[in-house]
Amino acid sequence: MSAMITSLQNDKVKYVRALQRRRRARHREQRLVFEGVRLVEEAVRAGIPPVFVFYTAQVGDDERGDRLLASLREMGVSCYAVSEQVLVACSDTETPQGILAVMPVPAPPRSEHPTFTLILDRVRDPGNLGTILRTALAAGVDQVLLTRGTVDVTNPKVVRAAMGAHLHLPVAALEWEAIAEEVNGCDIWLADVGGDTSYTAVDWTRPVALIIGGEAAGAGKQARALARGLISIPMTPEVDSLNTAAATAVILFEVVRQRRE
C-alpha cells in the first residue's frame, strides 16, 4: 500500500486542483472531477473507470465506502489515500465527502436521428445547468446542445448538480450553424414569458427541439430566428417568471406525458 499523500505540492494534488479551478485545463486534458461517494458509484455502475481516485480514512472505514474502493480496485483504478487537508484543498465543496475521482470527460454517443433535443442558450448559472441536465436525462432527452455563452459543462458545480447525467446524456457545445443542422426537420420551440402559445398546446410527439434562454437576458436573436414559435407557461399575475431549471422541467415533463399517452 502506498503512503498517504499529505503534501499540497504533490504532482497529483496539483493536477486535481488545476482541473477543479481551470476550464482550460479540463478541456486540454479532457478530464473532470467527480466528488462524493454517490457520483463515483455512478461512474462504477456505468462501467467508466476513473483515471485515479483520492480518498480519506473516513471513506475507507465506512462499509459503503469500502465496497466502492474495492470495486474501483477491481476495475484497475489507482486509489490514493490522502489527508483531510489535501482533500479539502482539492475539493470544490466546503464539506468534502471523503472521495473524489478524476474522470475522462464522458462522451455518450449522440443519436443519428434525435427526436427530442434541448438547446440551452446562454444559461450561465452552473447550478441551473447541472439541474437541467439531470432533468433532461430523466425526461428522455436525446441530446443537449449548448450555445456560446453557456456555462462550461465540465464546471465542478455543473458536474455536482447534474448528479451523474454526464455519464449518460449526450451534450455538445456548438455554434448556431451546427445547431441548425442538428435540428433540421424538427419543430423548434422557444420558451419565452411573452410566448403566445401554451406549452401544453404543442404537439410534442413530433420530432422537436426546445430552446431555453439564459437567466438574465433570455434567448438571443439567433435562437429567436431559428424558432418556429414562442411558448409560455401560464402563471398567476403575481409571478412573472420561473427559475430557468424549474421552467425547463415543467415543459420537459409535458413532453414525457404526451409521448406516453
CATH topology term of the largest domain: Alpha/beta knot
Strand count, sense and barrel status of the largest sheet are: 7 strands, parallel
Q: Return the CATH architecture of the largest domain.
A: 3-Layer(aba) Sandwich
Unreliable segments of 5+ consecutive residues:
none
List keywords for this structure.
single chain; 261 residues; alpha/beta; 60s Ribosomal Protein L30, Chain: A; Alpha/beta knot; 2 domains; seven-stranded parallel β-sheet; four-stranded mixed β-sheet; 11 helices; 38% helix
Verbal overview:
By secondary structure, the protein is α/β, with parallel strands linked by helices. The protein folds into 2 domains: 11-104, 2-Layer Sandwich (60s Ribosomal Protein L30, Chain: A), CATH 3.30.1330; 116-260, SPOUT methyltransferase, trefoil knot domain (Alpha/beta knot), CATH 3.40.1280. Helix content is 38%, strand content 19%. The protein is built from 11 helices and 11 strands. It has helices at 11-21, 23-29, 37-45, 57-60, 63-74, 84-90, 126-138, 156-162, 176-182, 221-226, 244-260; strands spanning 31-35, 52-55, 78-81, 99-104, 116-121, 143-146, 171-173, 187-191, 197-198, 208-213, 229-232. Helix 7 links the parallel strand 5 and strand 6. The termini are far apart.
